[in-house]
Amino acid sequence: MLALPLLICAWTFAPQESTQQETAPPEQASAQEDEADEPDELTLEEADARLPWRTGEIDLGKGMAKLTLPAAFRYLDPSAAQRVLEDVWGNPPSDPTWGMIFPADRGPFHEDSWAVVLRYEDEGHVDDGDASKIDYDDLMTEMRSGLGEENESRTKGGFATIDIVGWADRPHYDPAQHELFWAKELRFSDAPGNTLNYDVRLLGRKGVLSMNAVAGIEALPEVKAGMSALLGAVEFTDGNRYEQFDTGIDKLAAYGIGGLIAGKLALNAGLFKGLLALLIAGKKVVILVCAGAAAWFGKLFRSKKTRPAA
After folding, report:
1. N or C: which end of the chain has fewer CB within 10 A?
2. Total structural domains in the chain?
3. In what order do the strands lie in the sheet with 179-188?
4. For residue 32, which phi and psi values (nearest 5 degrees)?
5. For the segment 88-119, what is each residue's pLDDT rounded down to a tens digit?
6. Alpha-carbon distance 91 to 275, whole Å?
7. Is residue 130 left, alpha or beta, with left meaning phi > 0 and alpha meaning psi from -120 to 50?
8. Which range of residues forms the domain containing residue 240?
């Protein structure tokens, strides 16, 4: 397979102890700068090991929810997640996340990886009264018909259009746990294979915890099993649970269960642009590191400086 180059400057995470350093002579400093610009190869394992992975019990949203990670998964905090989404996978700046979850044996640089983006949608308490009344075939038809305007905008912007092939996993709502999940099979106009977009929503008192995963459609069994395990691993804390909704002070969302499923397709499909590029291309990643960089991901994808002729 061909190599897909990925230029990444080296990063560190642990605070460094302050030490006094002598000022290097100009000639030596210049040589050090030139050396710092020389890219070195970094293996997937080395790049992965430098990420600030966390496991075990994790507070989400400043204590609004709690995640107890199964052993098969690991977590990146919101800051690291934003760097991955924007600097590694090339997404435009977006709203803050509550972090990302990856399989324990694969990270953001692996072509066969998949990931879950955690977000909190603070749009009010979602009334689930419509859950048992939704015709999901009709909802799918509505979602497909609503793509026209979105795809027109994508075409003007030079982006691939999106078609919804159908349900990869039909929506299901658990009224006892206030948990909703569904999956769509998508087709991008510039992709040879179809894409899996798997969504989970945990309803809370004042908003919804969103868990969105994207992978190749062939990964459906693995992603479905993984999302099921993760759904049981997260919960809202006391004071933030669905049943603690106070009609006197809390606002209602402008949509119900159907609106949760039908909304924000373009956002969900776009979160994983860089990962999808790897999945679609099926290429190995060659990671180049600019030696000596002090801040992690500080100058991702920085081009090598042009040197003056001798």
Report:
1. C
2. 1
3. 73-76, 99-103, 115-121, 208-216, 195-203, 179-188, 162-174
4. -65, -40
5. 777 667 788 999 999 998 888 877 788 899 99
6. 10
7. alpha
8. 54-281
On whether residue 220 sits in a domain, the answer given is: yes
- 63 torsion bin: left (phi>0), alpha (psi -120 to 50), beta (else): left
Please report where in the chains the tokens 């690991």 appear, as a residue: 74
* 23 belongs to a structural domain: no
Q: Which of 137, 128, 162 is nearest to 260 (CA)?
A: 128
pLDDT of residue 2: 35
Output the domain CATH number for residue 217: 3.40.1000
Bridge partners, residue 121, by sequence = 208
Half-sphere exposure at residue 33, Cβ-oriented, CA atoms within 13 angstroms: 10
Token digits of residue 85 = 């989404």
The answer to whether residue 161 sits within a structural domain is yes
Q: CB under 8 Å to 277, separation ≥6 — which residues?
A: 4, 89, 90
Give this prediction's pTM: 0.74
Q: Tokens standing for 291?
A: 């030696």
| DSSP conformation class of 302 | P
Asked whether residue 198 is domain-assigned, the answer is yes
